[in-house]
Structures are given as structure tokens and as C-alpha cells.
Amino acid sequence: MTAASNGAVVSNPAVPAAGALLDVDDVSCVLGGVRALSEVTMHIAPGELVGIIGPNGAGKTTLFNVVTGFVPATTGEVRWDGAPLRGGKAHRVARSGLVRTFQNVGGFTGLTVAENLELATRGRDPDAIDRVEALLHLADVRDKAVEDCSLATRKLVGIAMALVRTPKLLLLDEPLAGLDDTDRDRVTSLIGQVHDSGVTVCMVEHDIGRTLRLADRMVVLDAGRLVAVGTPAELARDDVLARNYLSS
Amino acid sequence: MSARRRRQGAGVLAVGVVLLALAFVVPENRVLLLNAFLAYGALVVGLDLLVGDLRMMPAGHAAFFGAGGYATVLLYQKAGLPLPVAGVLAVLIVGLLAALIGLPAVGRSSGFSFAIITFAFGELLIQLIANVPGFFGGSSGLTIDWGVGSDMPFDFSVYRYFTLWLVVVLVVVMGVVVLVRNSHLGLRMKAVRADENGTRGLGFNPTTYKGIAFVLASMLAGLVGVFWAPMNGFISPDTLGVNQSILLLGMLIIGGVGRITGALVGVALLVTLPALFDMDPVLRTVLVGGLLAIVALLQPSGIVGGLASLWTRLRRPRTPPPADGAVDATLEPAGAGR
Ligand SMILES: Nc1ncnc2c1ncn2[C@@H]1O[C@H](COP(=O)(O)OP(=O)(O)OP(=O)(O)O)[C@@H](O)[C@H]1O
Ligand SMILES: [Mg+2]
After folding, report:
1. Is B262 within the bounds of a domain?
2. Which secondary structure element, helix H or strand E, spans residue B102, and what is its range?
3. Number of folded domains in chain B?
4. Taking CB atoms and an 8 Å cutoff, what residues of chain B touch A101?
5. 20 to 30 A from B28, CA-CA: which of A240, B167, B258, B283?
6. Is the distance from the beta carbon of residue A19 to the nearest atom of ligand 1 less than 6 Å?
7. A58 lines ligand 1 (CB under 6 A)
8. Which residues, listed in sequence order, are joined to residue A229 by a DSSP beta bridge?
9. Is the pLDDT of residue B139 over 60?
10. What residues contact B116, with CB distance under 8 A and at least 6 apart?
């Protein structure tokens, strides 16, 4: 554990874990005059489940956009699987096993659940579709248009579309938003299962309680800056952090 | 999905058979009208690949029809190629032109620049034809003398002979559209329409699919021109201007975007009916404008779209929409009524 510039808890943010899957090095990102990310450094090691929290506008989604090639970093470097991801085109990044979901609801409207999954596998992996449909209990709704599905189901479709592509690193942007407690528990345990099956996961969430229970490591962002990195227990031990960011 | 493809394929063939029969029985003074229906039908059905499947609004679709016609005539008359060879080459040339125009046009995320660039292409073509009269025939057009006419099969007139070909063209265009819509390519196109960024996240480039659709739809329009120009015996820049392109969009939107029947109903309403009833051209313009306004205000899915949703509502009058997950719904006895 080390102290960041603002005095918060940070465990070795600048030292890349040996063989990290994703390295974010001193990344800043300016969008329309807004400094959405300021000198953010973080790493994700294979097999981890990392939770990212922070208030609205903290830059969480922007961080996902930068590492997946949707938005270029203004300064700094992102390395994915050891190789620099410089001006990477989003569709190329997506094909390399770095798979994300979007903050809004999952699935393309106008397509059925099954068609969405077929699209996600690029039509090449029907076995993966069967497997994921079983895992997420989507078989009953497979022939339904996604826009006719409940919010919870659409969220699951979004996650399923990521899973059928057998990601190396799965980035989930607010997978629990908009769900009731029952569905939150269900999706949370599914994420746990996916992680247990060997997928490295990084999730952005406002549901801090469930994220703390799930994550191996937490990253706290605020106003584009990295405030803290550490295990849930480490963060909870710091009174200021706990008061400002961990109570929902 | 393959059941749907079979059903729609059978529909295409059925329409083809009916039109073929019509080619034999339609009175001689109505043959040109039937040809116009077939040609406009093929143009509008092909245009729907862009409008219906991708929400792309080209303001220059007629230009590719014209380019196909001009290329055929020039290759036949000036280069001395046999008509079938000229036609095949013409479709390829149109594809190349579309790729050149499409490259800068489809990559823009704004539909506005796409409309502007395609509009500019049409106007450029007209200027080119008007300013190089020695080669392109100028603004008064080119007359085609293709030296056939007396020994047609079934003792058909030249116009009626081309009816057969135009039926084939329409069937081919409908067939391509059905194939695309029921393929993985069609799935990707639907996804691009719904959310471009989402498709990037899945690992494919939306620009690629918009480009493929643009080139394909333009080549289909060129194919219509390949048969229309020799049928008509004459081609002029009037047929490829922006007013023609807008008329094509109007027919599609009024009939109903996204389905072949919509495109054909739009053509029947705006081309066939006014001619059958000898409608005054001014009245026809009013009809087009009025129908467009009504559709835009009341029924954005067009006449056929409106009828289709009415039909689904009438067919299932009292069944509530099934609950999500459908588990609860299936446990209830049918018609239990909530
Ligand atoms: N395209 C853009 N143009 C200008 N500013 C932007 C753009 N995208 C994001 N921002 C700004 O960047 C900051 C970070 O936004 P971001 O969406 O990353 O936050 P977030 O942490 O995901 O918030 P939330 O929890 O609400 O999803 C915000 O101030 C936002 O207004
Ligand atoms: Mg966000």
C-alpha cells in the first residue's frame, strides 16, 4: 500500500504486475474540453476481478472507452496483452479478446435474443451460444425481440453477447444498473461464476456493496483522477475513503 | 431463419410467375406501363437495402440507374460490344463508381453528408453528360439503334420482349434482397442500423457493411438501367437527376420501408395508378406530396407497414402481451383473460 498524491490508499499502482493483461500508464483523456481522465495508472492481472467505483462523471466509462479503442488517449499509453494499443480501431480491439458491454441496455433492437447471440459469435460458435444460454437461463426467451424483453433480461443479453465471444478480459459497464434486488443478486452471482470459470473481469458499478463482495481489487476514480487502488479490505480500513466512496 | 427465407423465396417466385403471365396478356397499349412498374419496382426494392435495412438516405439512387443505362449504350454503340457483354460490364462499372463515391460517403457518421455526397454525384453526372455532348450525347440524350425488332420470340413487340427481361430483373433484385436479409450479412446490417458503436464493440466495422450495401444497391440500380435504356431506345440525363432519386425515396416511404411489398405498393400508387387514370402531372405531384405528408405524420412505417400492424392487431384481439420470460404465461390456460 502506498499513498497517492491526495493521501488515499494505493497499492503499487505504478508497478506493473508481472505479465499484466491490461496496463493503463499515465493516461489522460480530454473530451470536448473536459478532462475526463487525468494521469490514470492501473493494471489488471490475469484471473483478477477488479471493481471500479466513483461518482457520476468520474471517468469510469471513459476509461473503458480508451482501453477498448473507442476514444484515443490524449496522453499516456495503454498496453493490452503486452502490446501497445495506440490509436487502435475499436472493432480490431474487440476481435482480440478484449470484450466490453455498454452502460446502456444490451442487445440490438430489431433482433431476437438468438439473433443477437449469433451476431456476437460472428455466426461461428453455436456451441458457445447453447452454453451461455443455459448459464444465463436465456433459452426461454431466445426467439423474442430484445425490445420486448424486460430490462433485466436485456442486461443479461448484453452480458451473454460478451460471454459467447470467450473473452480474455471482460469489461462490464454497470451490469447491475436498473435492476431490482433479486436480479442484482442473480447477475452478481453470474458474474462470480464467469470469473470462477477463468475469465478476467473488470466491472464499473455504482452498487458498491455487491462490488466489494465480488471484487479481488478495487479502483476508485473521482473527477478523472485515480483516488485509490486496493483490496476491498484495504479500502475499508481507510476512514476517509470509506466515508467518501464506500457508503452508498 | 431458413424457414423465413424459404417462405420469402417462394413469395418472390410467385410474384415472378404472376408478372410473367401478365407479360403475355397485358394489352399492347399498357406494355410500357407494365415495364415502368417493373423497372421502378426493381429500383425501389433495391433502394430499400439502404433505406430500410440501414436507414441510409441516398439522394442519387437514380444516378446509378442512369450510369448503368449510359454505360450499356456507350459500350454497345461506341465500343461495338455485344449487348450482353456491354450489360455485364456496365453493372461492374456502376459497382466501381459506387465504391468510389461510397468510400468518402458511407464512412461519415452523419446521414446528412451521405445525402449531400450522393446528391452531388448525380448532379456531376448530369453536368458531365451535358458538357461532353460529342461522347455522351449532351442534354438532349442518346438514341439507341440496336438493330433488332422484327424476329422477337412469341411474335412479341420489342417493348413486350423487354417486359420478360424486366420481370427477370425484378425477380433477381427481390431475390438478392431476400437472400441478404436472411443471411448473416443482413443480421450485421440490422445491428448497424440499431447501434453503430455497438457493432464496433462486437468486432466489426459498420462502415464496411454500409459500403457493401451501398455498392450492392447501386449495382442493382445499374442493372435496371442496363435493360431500360435499350428497351426505351433512348436515354437522357432527365432520368438520373435528383428529382428522380427523390421520387424513388417517396415511393418507398409511402409504400412502406423495410419490406418488398411496401416498395411495390409505393410504385403501383405513384407510377401505375396515375398513368392508368391519366392523371394530370400537377395532380400527381400533389398526390405524391400529400401522401408523403400523411405517411410522415400518421404512419411512418408506410401504407403496407400500417396495414401489417392493423392485421396483427385484428388477428390477436384480446391476448395480452406475454410476460417476460414467458414462464408464467405458458402456465396459464389459454384465453384465461386477465
Ligand atoms: N464525448 C464527450 N464530450 C465531452 N465530455 C464528455 C464526453 N464523454 C464524457 N464526457 C465527460 O467526461 C466526464 C467523465 O464521463 P464518464 O462518462 O466517463 O463518467 P462515468 O464515471 O462513467 O459516469 P457515470 O457513473 O455517470 O456513468 C464527464 O464529465 C462527462 O461529462
Ligand atoms: Mg459511465
Report:
1. no
2. helix B83-106
3. 1
4. 201
5. B283
6. no
7. yes
8. A10, A219
9. yes
10. B59
Tell me the CA end-to-end span of chain B in Å, nearest whole number: 33
Please choose, from the candidates A54, A45, A52, the residue with its C-alpha nearest in 3D space to the C-alpha of residue A21. Answer: A45
- Decide: A225 in ligand 1 pocket, CB within 6 A: no
Interface of B with A (CB under 8 A): 1, 184, 187-188, 190-191, 193-195, 197-205, 321, 324-327
* A83 beta partners: A80
The mean pLDDT of B113-129, rounded to a whole number, is 91
pLDDT tens-place string over residues B228-248? 999 998 999 988 889 899 999
Binary contact (A109, B203; C-beta < 8 A):
no
Half-sphere exposure of A230 (CA within 13 A, CB side): 20
Determine, for residues A110 and B204 on separate chains, whether the beta-carbon distance falls below 8 Å.
no
pLDDT at A2 over 60: no
Please report residues of B whose CB lies closer than 8 A to that of A91: 199-200, 202-205
Which candidate, B88, B47, B64, places its Cα nearest to that of B217?
A: B47
Establish whether residue A222 lines the binding site of ligand 1, counting it when its CB lies within 6 angstroms of any ligand atom.
Answer: no
Q: How many residues does this entry show for chain B?
A: 338
How far apart (Å, rounded) are the C-alpha atoms in residues A204 and A219? 9
- 8 Å CB contact between A108 and A154: no
Give the closest ligand to the alpha carbon of residue A172: 2
How many Å apart are CA A142 and CA A132, to the nearest integer?
Answer: 12
Output the residue whose Cα is nearest ligand 1's atom 29: A57
A241 alpha carbon – ligand 1 mean position (Å): 22
Give dist(CA A42, CA A24) in Å, integer.
5
Contact B191, B198 (CB under 8 A): yes
- Angstrom distance (rounded) from CA B57 to CA A123: 29
Q: Which of A38, A60, A174 to mutate to test the pocket of ligand 1 (most atoms within 8 A of CB)?
A: A60
Does position A58 have pLDDT exceeding 80, yes or no? yes
Q: For residue B320, is pLDDT > 60?
A: no
CB contacts < 8 Å between A and B, how many? 76
**The three cell numbers locating residue A14:** 505504478
Comparing B327 with B127, the larger pLDDT belongs to B127
ipTM of the complex: 0.84
Q: Is residue B125 part of a domain?
A: yes
Range of the domain at B83: 2-242
End-to-end CA distance of chain A: 24
Output the DSSP codes for B152-206. Answer: -GGG--HHHHHHHHHHHHHHHHHHHHHHHHTSHHHHHHHHHHH-HHHHHHTT--H
Calpha distance B266→B249 (Å, rounded): 10
Measure the CA–CA gap between A146 and B168, rounded to whole angstroms: 37
Assigned C-alpha cell, A110 = 430489431
HSE-up (13 A, CA, CB side) for residue B21:
5
Q: Whose CA is nearest to atom 22 of ligand 1?
A: A61
Amino acid at A45: A
**Residue B156, in any domain of the structure:** yes
A61 CB under 6 A from ligand 1? yes
Q: Which three three-digit cell numbers place residue B320?
A: 395480452
A101-116: b (≥16 Cβ within 10 Å) or e: bbeebbbbbbbbbbbb
Determine what percent of chain A is predicted with pLDDT higher than 70: 92
Lowest-confidence pick of A193-202, B66-75, B310-319: B310-319
Residue with cell 440507374: B65
